[in-house]
Give the backbone structure.
Amino acid sequence: MKKISFLISAAVMITGMLIGSAFAGEPVQQVAKSTPIEVYYFHMTHRCTTCQTVEKVSEEAVNEFFADAVKKGDVTFKAINIEDKENKALVKKLKVQGQSLLIVNGKDQINITDKGFMYAMTEPEKLKAEIKSGVEKFKK
């Protein structure tokens, strides 16, 4: 029994070495598909001044801090009306239930809604800093 186990183990090891040597010297191409970082502002159809300002300041921040990445499509800003039927799938996917400001990278997200509504009108630079910080976390 020990001989059979040894022979099987030896055969597996030899097969592994032969397969490994067959690919030796050939470069392995790894294509890393980068996921864009998306800053979403979800809103209703009817919006107050604060809601409109959150959108405006957020878009300004993305374009100000990440202009090159925006041109490449690596960072995007999108304002999404959650009441439009065409946006229902995205709203459901990201589990949005109301006005929201999210920074999304694949399955990961940072919710800065509270900061958006706290800073947009009175301290827009703080909101811009929050957006910059959130996007940079995903860029690392």
Notes: Residues 2-22 form the longest helix (21 residues).
